[in-house]
Task: inverse folding
């Protein structure tokens, strides 16, 4: 084994040491020890690299990202709200807000001083905005003033060189084309509060503080559809904040448009009528075969403009203290005794339980005796001999005292619930009230008292514990018109996503089919037609030439106070006056719509509520009806207020 | 010079490859770190990248040219070199250009010379010469150390008042490490080490009174610069904290594989300070990630260890000390710089040799490499070489 003669690159250490140069060898050994030191430090360096890049890599990557990327949300236009004919009720317009980018503001002190007079604000107010934004990251803009006018906008745009850091941001705001039209239904927006933020951000992290959110009405209930999706602008900046490029700009997606089932023109007409007559109450109209709501008026209206940007305490208190309760959506939240409109329930219960037939008659002397008490009919002179049809047409209390006594309260309650009274209809309105339909069990449960049979007589004519909403009476009327098919009331016709063109329709839904002999309802409908068209009907003034109407008036005692008995009605204090009901459907032969009007403290259904219902019917059927004289506007169809006019019916 | 060809056959290719690799990575990185600087630097006519590339090429040329001379000539000319270094340091203190709050440069027209950089190598040569000439088997005593102490204190003092705390520190570290290699008696080492510790503590404790203490000896602006060095947070509340945070973010955000060459946002969007000089490695870390960083650091360590092997096999005492000193000079700068950019060491102005932009540092390091090559080439006694030639 002969080694090749080639010399190794280095002479072996041993060879050198063999040279016996002791002092050099010391150095050589120490040199190698120093190598260990180098290895130690480089191991430390690699450990640190691992720590920074692998251990905390993601954290630093995030920091690098937030170093350079400024995320800005772009507001999405909220969906519009339109009526059944595509009439725009709530839309948007761009508003211009003045914001300050703190990073770019060279000298905030002088800037604020210069800006205050331009914005018509106090210097201290602007500083207050600064303080509020103190916690927010520096790159988040500070809102200085919302919705500036064109002149201010022009000034700021033309002086942007002198106002470093001041920018204009465009934000869509709500426009109410018809003012307070459908105000209870539509509701309003407000700045999202902490609870909403906490609650909503768990579901979807789309909200930020300062965002507007639906606070009431459909704006709240349909928030998800209306809201749209915010866009996002990503700007990459360098260390001096100079924009390098605008990255990935996600366009904001507008919210979906909601088409209501309502008719804005009829709605407006009715709202104007009630406002002009200073009437407080509700009016509802519904397509009987589909359950689509045509009209939903609650008067007085909600002053939407007061709620924009948050309502003041004084205004809120004024609304709360108003005896006409403008805050309440009376269509679904107001509960009133149904009065004589309830007599249809009593009649139906009597017929269905076999206690009466259409030929059952009674002699009405003007009162009904039960036990040792006397129950009065509204017509003190009495109706004489009445059958069911006449009893409905002339609203004879005596007849229905008799029926109620025979049927019993529990049977009445059963039929009332079947017809939609005392239960929630499921309409898209907030805080819908179910009202009260009393039964023996109900009284025992809520009052801890036994039912007295005498109370059944009050219930039978719609007084006593009974309370219902105008919407429920409308549903009941529609159910009578459709032979017992109760529809679910609907407010929304369709929701259109204009981005994708997708249309979501809301087909009619049957809430309940009442399995009854259709003859029973036909008998009641006969009486209801006589109410309007009959010679002695309680709502003869509602009659329209060329249109058969089936209806029922009602007068509901607001309070049961005998001390006002016999006092001239105009002298009774407002809040003790009776509520006036009128409910009807038309055309009587082939029903299309049901209309219910309730005027709070309006005294009599036929005179107070009837004309409004008549106007609604005339407006709805206008193409099929011959013109009436002076029939220009809805207002003129209303009869002039009849002070001290003879009391009519009910 | 008959033996030249044979000597060149023994040139250390491995060392050249390692140095070349580091230089290439350094240049590549400098390009990335200075892309955004080009516009600013256009006033000077040349981009930092181009300048550095030219210096590098020149450095390699000088490196090879110097192989014709035996390194022992350095021992012979030692006092001349040392004297020249002191003169340049003195000149820069009196009439130098200032930048970044310190007076460091002498403008020679073509290049701006930074004598404090050269002084690192000059000190290595000076101490190697001193210890090579005085052999002590049982180590040096106090009396023997007075000479080397003076050799280091003159230049270190002149650098300190520029002020350049980092370089002065490096000079002291070189001196201490070389003295330890040469060997110190334990009876001397322990008291001197204690004295040193006590002195350091005293200086640190009196840093607030430094102004008073230095007043009689220095000008006001020099005192201010020195006090700023010791109390950076007072002078610049967010400066250094910001620098070091951005550096950590840059390196950390590189992750495993890095953001890609020229894609590092910390560097390219100028969040990273001093990215072409002291913080150059942060650019590398961001763009090449953990894998690239370990590769770089690994190559650098191999280069240093290879240098130590050269020292350990040098033919004589001067060669060992000289090569060791060169490795020491490069290693302590590299280690301090790397620990500094990763926040394991305070921010002191120490460059990463061969990577940080700067002609003087590059030139000094290349001269060091030339010495290593020279020592390696002549690692066997001349007689052996001559014999093999016969």
Result:
């Amino acid at each position: 084994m002969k080694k090749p003669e080639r010399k190794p690159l280095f002479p072996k250490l041993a060879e050198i040491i063999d040279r016996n140069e002791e002092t050099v060898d010391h150095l050589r050994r120490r040199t190698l020890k120093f190598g260990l030191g180098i290895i130690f430090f480089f191991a430390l360096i690699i450990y640190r690299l691992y720590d920074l890049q692998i251990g905390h890599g993601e954290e630093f990557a995030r920091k690098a990202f937030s170093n350079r990327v400024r995320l800005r949300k772009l507001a999405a236009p909220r969906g519009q709200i339109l009526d059944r004919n595509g009439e725009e009720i709530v839309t948007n317009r761009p508003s211009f807000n003045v914001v300050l980018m703190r990073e770019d503001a060279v000298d905030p002190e002088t800037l604020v001083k210069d800006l205050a007079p331009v914005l018509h604000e106090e210097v201290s107010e602007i500083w207050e905005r600064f303080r509020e934004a103190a916690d927010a990251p520096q790159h988040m803009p500070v809102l200085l003033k919302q919705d500036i006018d064109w002149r201010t906008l022009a000034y700021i745009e033309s002086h942007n060189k002198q106002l470093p850091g001041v920018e204009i941001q465009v934000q869509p705001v709500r426009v109410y084309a018809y003012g307070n039209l459908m105000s209870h239904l539509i509701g309003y927006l407000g700045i999202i509060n902490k609870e909403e933020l906490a609650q909503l951000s768990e579901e979807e992290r789309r909200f930020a503080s300062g965002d507007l959110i639906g606070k009431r009405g459909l704006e709240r209930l349909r928030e998800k559809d209306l809201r749209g999706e915010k866009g996002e602008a990503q700007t990459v900046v360098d260390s001096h904040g100079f924009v390098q490029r605008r990255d990935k700009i996600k366009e904001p997606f507008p919210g979906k448009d909601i088409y209501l089932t309502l008719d804005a023109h009829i709605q407006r007409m009715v709202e104007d009528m009630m406002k002009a007559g200073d009437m407080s109450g509700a009016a509802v109209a519904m397509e009987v075969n589909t359950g689509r709501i045509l009209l939903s008026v609650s008067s007085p209206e909600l002053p939407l403009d007061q709620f924009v940007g948050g309502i003041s305490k004084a205004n809120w208190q004024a609304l709360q203290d108003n005896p006409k309760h403008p805050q309440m959506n009376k269509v679904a939240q107001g509960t009133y005794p149904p009065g004589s409109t309830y007599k249809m329930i009593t009649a139906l219960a009597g017929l269905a339980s076999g206690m009466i037939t259409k030929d059952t008659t009674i002699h009405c002397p003007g009162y009904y005796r039960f036990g040792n008490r006397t129950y009065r009919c509204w017509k003190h002179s009495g109706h004489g001999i009445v059958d069911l049809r006449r009893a409905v047409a002339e609203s004879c209390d005596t007849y229905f005292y008799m029926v109620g006594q025979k049927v019993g309260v529990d049977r009445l309650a059963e039929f009332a619930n079947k017809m939609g009274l005392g239960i929630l209809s499921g309409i898209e309105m907030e805080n819908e009230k179910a009202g009260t339909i009393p039964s023996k069990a109900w009284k025992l449960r809520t009052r801890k008292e036994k039912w007295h049979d005498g109370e059944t007589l009050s219930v039978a004519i719609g007084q006593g514990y009974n309370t219902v909403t105008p919407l429920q009476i409308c549903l009941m009327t529609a159910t009578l018109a459709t032979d017992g098919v109760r529809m679910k009331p609907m407010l929304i016709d369709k929701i259109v996503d204009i981005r994708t063109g997708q249309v979501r329709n809301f087909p009619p839904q049957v809430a309940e089919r009442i399995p009854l002999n259709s003859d029973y309802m036909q008998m009641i409908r006969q009486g209801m037609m006589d109410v309007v068209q009959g010679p002695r009907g309680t709502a003869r003034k509602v009659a329209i030439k060329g249109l058969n109407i089936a209806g029922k008036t009602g007068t509901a005692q607001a309070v049961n106070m005998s001390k006002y008995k016999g006092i001239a009605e105009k002298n009774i204090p407002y809040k003790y006056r009776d509520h006036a009901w009128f409910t009807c459907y038309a055309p009587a032969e082939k029903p299309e719509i049901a209309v219910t009007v309730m005027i709070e403290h309006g005294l009599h259904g036929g005179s107070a509520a009837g004309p409004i219902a008549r106007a609604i019917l005339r407006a709805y059927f206008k193409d099929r009806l011959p013109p009436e004289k002076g029939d220009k506007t809805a207002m003129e169809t209303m009869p002039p207020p009849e002070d001290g006019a003879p009391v009519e019916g009910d | 010079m008959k033996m030249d060809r044979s000597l060149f056959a023994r040139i250390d290719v491995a060392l050249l490859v390692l140095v070349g690799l580091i230089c290439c990575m350094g240049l590549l990185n400098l390009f990335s770190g200075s892309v955004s600087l080009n516009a600013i630097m256009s006033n000077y006519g040349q981009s930092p990248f181009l300048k550095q590339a030219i210096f590098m090429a020149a450095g390699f040329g000088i490196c090879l040219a110097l192989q014709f001379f035996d390194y022992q000539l350095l021992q012979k000319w030692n006092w001349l070199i040392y004297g020249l270094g002191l003169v340049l340091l003195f000149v820069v203190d009196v009439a130098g250009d200032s930048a970044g709050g310190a007076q460091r440069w002498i403008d020679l027209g073509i290049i701006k010379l930074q004598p404090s950089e050269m002084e690192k190598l000059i000190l290595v040569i000076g101490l190697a010469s001193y210890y090579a000439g005085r052999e002590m088997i049982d180590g040096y005593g106090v009396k023997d150390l007075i000479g080397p102490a003076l050799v280091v204190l003159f230049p270190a003092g002149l650098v300190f008042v520029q002020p350049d705390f980092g370089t002065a520190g490096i000079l002291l570290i070189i001196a201490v490490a070389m003295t330890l290699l040469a060997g110190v008696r334990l009876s001397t080492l322990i008291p001197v080490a204690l004295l040193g510790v006590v002195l350091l503590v005293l200086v640190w404790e009196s840093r607030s009174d430094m102004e008073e203490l230095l007043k009689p000896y220095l000008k006001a602006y020099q005192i201010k610069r020195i006090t700023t060095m010791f109390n950076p947070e007072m002078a610049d509340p967010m400066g250094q904290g910001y620098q070091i945070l951005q550096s950590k973010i840059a390196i950390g955000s590189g992750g495993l594989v890095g953001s890609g060459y020229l894609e590092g946002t910390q560097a390219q969007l100028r969040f990273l300070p001093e990215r072409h000089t002291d913080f150059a490695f942060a650019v590398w870390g961001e763009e090449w990630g953990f894998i690239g960083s370990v590769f770089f650091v690994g190559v650098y360590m191999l280069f240093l260890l290879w240098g130590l092997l050269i020292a350990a096999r040098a033919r004589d005492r001067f060669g060992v000390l000289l090569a060791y000193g060169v490795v020491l000079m490069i290693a302590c700068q590299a280690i301090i710089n790397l620990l500094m950019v990763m926040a394991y060491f305070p921010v002191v102005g120490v460059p990463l040799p061969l990577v940080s932009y700067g002609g003087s540092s590059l030139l000094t390091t290349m001269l060091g490499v030339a010495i290593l090559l020279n020592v390696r080439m002549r690692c066997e006694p001349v007689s052996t070489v001559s014999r093999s030639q016969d």
Residues 318 and 352 of chain A are 49 Å apart (CA to CA). Chain A touches chain B through 46 residues (CB under 8 Å). Chain A has 24 helices and 23 strands. The two ends of chain A are 135 Å apart (CA to CA).
